[in-house]
Structures are given as structure tokens and as C-alpha cells.
Amino acid sequence: MRKVHGIPGAARSGGFTLMELLVVVVIIGLLVALVAPRYFQQIGKSERTAAANQIDALRKAIDSYRLDVGRFPRQEDGLQALVVRPEGEARWQGPYLQRGVPMDPWGNPYVYRVPGAFGDYEVLSLGRDGKPGGEGEDADIGGDG
Fold it and tell me: Residue-wise over 13-23: b if at least 16 C-beta within 10 A, else e?
């Protein structure tokens, strides 16, 4: 019979020691500390890319609306004019968007202005914070029409 740590009849069970577990936890913690910031930075970048792509699709729908109706959607009709026929629009051939007007990746509505600051109209997302201006992920996306 083997003797382990002075206890007769006790055999080593083959488990991990507390020190081995602590080393593994520290290594995992270091890996998370190095990888997590890059991961979340990529998520922010992908949300901004998704917003830019949605704005591009909205602009194409607005341009199609203009070709059919002869003008851009009115400010008071907003982007809903791309989905639901505005009252009195006989030349409307929509809907111009298949799934309705999307929210931006942060759950905020897109801003539509006629006339725009840089053109006939503008479509923009106010970024993560949902407020005009900002920097980084909070910066506005789009704007010129």
C-alpha cells in the first residue's frame, strides 16, 4: 500500500493542485486582457460599417423615389415615404425598401433632412450616442446626399 503525505492507504487522485489552477486562471486572464480590447474595437468598426452600408441603401432608395416621383421625399414624409405611399403621390412606384426603414446599428432612427447641409438631402446616423457630433464610435455617419 502507498503512503501519500503521511496518510496510510491514501492514493494520489490525479487531480490538479490549487497552484496549477491559479496559474491557468492567470494565463486566461492575461489572454482576455490582451484580446478583449481588440475584439470590442472590431465590433465598433463593424457597426460603423453596417451603418454606412444601410445609409448607402437608403440613398439608393431615395434616388429611385426621385426618378419615379420627380422629387425627393418631403421632410414631413421622411424615410417612411420609401415604404408607404405619401398622400397624393400618383407616380409613386414603391415600396423602395423591402423590409421597411431600418434603425441604425445602435437602435436609433436615421436622420433625413431636405435640403441637406451638403446637397439636396442628407441621411445620417448620429452614432452610438444618438447625439449630433461626437468622436470615434459616437461620431455621425453619412450626411451628404
Answer: eeeeeeeeeee
